[in-house]
Amino acid sequence: MIEMREVHKTYPNGVRALNGINIKIQKGEFVYVVGPSGAGKSTFIKMMYREEKPTTGLMLVNGMNVGTIKDTEVPMFRRNLGVIFQDFKLLPTLTVYENVAFAMEVIEEEPEVIQKRVMDVLNQVKIGHKANMKPNELSGGEQQRVAIARAIVNRPKVLIADEPTGNLDPETTWGIMDILKEISDTGTTIIMATHNREIVNTIKKRVIAIEKGRIVRDEARGEYGYED
To answer: For this UniProt entry, what's an example GO CC term (predicted)?
Structure first.
């Protein structure tokens, strides 16, 4: 589903973010990406949805070469991806329903299909009863549930979660993780960058640790492995 071969990333200011990354992530895997701040995790994650491109090396996602995708092809490339951010990135002027529906409208889905699918995913993440509210009327945990619904409404093959529980309290965090586990159980590939030691050590999944732009650990059922 995702493969990197000798991927390097150097930014225009000379910062080397990734140094020779080689990795394969199979369909249906749930993978944590961990490491200290500044290790290269964000660049690693951003390449998966083509926010960044490799300087050198081969990066494949869903069989498409991230390094050669034209800007005009990015929207099509992202149709098979869902992305969840730490800061939600919801559109403040739209309702919960409209925020999620927007993801289907941009791919020109039929209105009747949108209506059914949006309510299905809102109910799946247990936020359907707030479909007509605006984001500022919701708690942080509720906003993240909306963000998850938006990310999965088009049934992506890969779900990328960049610190999805970073702004949430512990109780809400576990509710979000329950949802991600349910999504994983349907066969969706999930890659989750996190600094949450308790999550990684409690919900055992594959752990990829990045330090100074290199993979230093890749364990099938790994530990977080860093001090808070």
So the answer is: plasma membrane
